[in-house]
Amino acid sequence: MSKKGLQTNSLAGWLGIQTPIIISGPCSAETEHQTVTTAMQLKALNRVHLLRAGIWKPRTRPGQFEGAGEAGLAWLMAAKRETGIPVTTEVATAAHVEACLKAGVDVLWVGARTTVNPFSVQEIADALQGVDIPVMVKNPVNPDLELWIGALERLNRAGIRTLAAIHRGFSSFDKGPFRNAPMWDFAIELKTRFPELEIICDPSHICGNRELLPFVAQKALDLDMAGIMLESHITPDQAWSDAKQQITPAAFGKMLEGLIVRKAEVVSKEFRDTLTILREQIDQLDDDIMGKMSARMKISEQIGRYKRDNNVTILQVNRWDEILNTRLAQGNAMGLSQDFVTDLLKLIHHESIQVQQRVMNDKVEKAV
Ligand code: PEP
Ligand code: MN
User: Which fold has domain 269-367?
Assistant: First the structure.
């Protein structure tokens, strides 16, 4: 039970396992062979608690594979029979819900393109009225926490108790190296507001590529998320949807071996929750500071190159005075001590000069 309107039970508890909950399977069920073979290879890892496969696929552009439809449900159920692992798929309409309930799908999820639309979410909630089935809700494509919470509430009010959230990143102009910007703050805020709600991270849709998957998965575990949903495929390069981000079950197994599940220090639950949440906020801010420092030094490098090519000295006292004065005033207004801001700026300035010096030396060395 948790505060502020959501009364949820644990999905891990429902599955009878300890967190992290591990969910995997193809982006889409393409054929019976692909669905069942992927599932058997995942079963061999002995780590997967829930099999996923998309049956109805919301594609951004028309003319692409839009899912196998109800035929795919039969393949998903065959995968369950072969492996004994419960199965989950995405529902976007009442008809999808009914087909899944009829087929015996164990867990449903609401996709990111559906969470944005309260009409669609309500339609799903109405179709689930009085049904006891766990539902996972992906964050909406746009970074709007209220929509995400609203979808969870609609399902909760329809009587769905075993609810989890899935963090799959957000559409953003500034995505960085990701397909969908993770914007971890949203997941942290959701957890702060509903400490009992399990949040599962979906690194596949955050990354959109294979290289970043382990980093995002580890970050999710470090933020104490309750699980990982990751797309896997027997022949990822040939996948009919999201080929670039899928990996083989064996590669997923290797990735899982490399992930570190840290134990939060358990003193009392209240202590753990408060401290964990505060530390997560610190980690997030440090992450931002590191990113900004790296960006700042890269600009120093560019300035160094520009000065070098124009034969200008590295140190320009006026500029340094200007930096010091404006930042000291700003820091003061933000409640930072003068000593701290001065030391920090000196350190940054020193490193910045070193960076520019290296650029100059480079040229000298090349000339020699
Ligand atoms: C998916 O899980 O394959 C999917 C369509 O995800 P999302 O709703 O996060 O885009
Ligand atoms: Mn996908």
Answer: Chorismate Mutase Domain, subunit A (1.20.59)
Give the pTM: 0.76
CA gap 71, 67 in Å, rounded: 10
| DSSP state string for 251-282 | HHHHHHHH---PPPP-S-HHHHHHHHHHHHHH
Distance CA 98, CA 120 (A): 14
C-alpha span between 201 and 152 (Å, rounded): 16
Question: Which DSSP symbol is given to 143?
Answer: S
Which residues lie across from 170 on neighbouring strands? 181
The string of pLDDT tens digits covering residues 100-149 is 999 999 999 999 999 999 999 999 999 999 999 999 999 999 999 999 99
Identify whether the C-beta of residue 233 lies closer than 8 Å to the C-beta of residue 27. Answer: yes
| Two tokens, residue 268 | 């009392």
CA 367 – ligand 1 centroid, Å: 54
Q: Rounded CA gap, 163 and 137, in Å? A: 8
Whose CA is closest to atom 4 on ligand 1? 111
Say which ligand is closest to the CA of 116: 1
* 3-class secondary-structure state, position 169: coil
Question: What count of other Cβ atoms lies within 10 Å of the Cβ of residue 77?
Answer: 16
Q: From atom 9 of ligand 1, which residue's Cα is the shortest distance away? A: 112
- Does domain 11-258 fall under CATH 1.10.10.10? My reply is no
> Structural domain boundaries of the chain?
11-258, 269-367
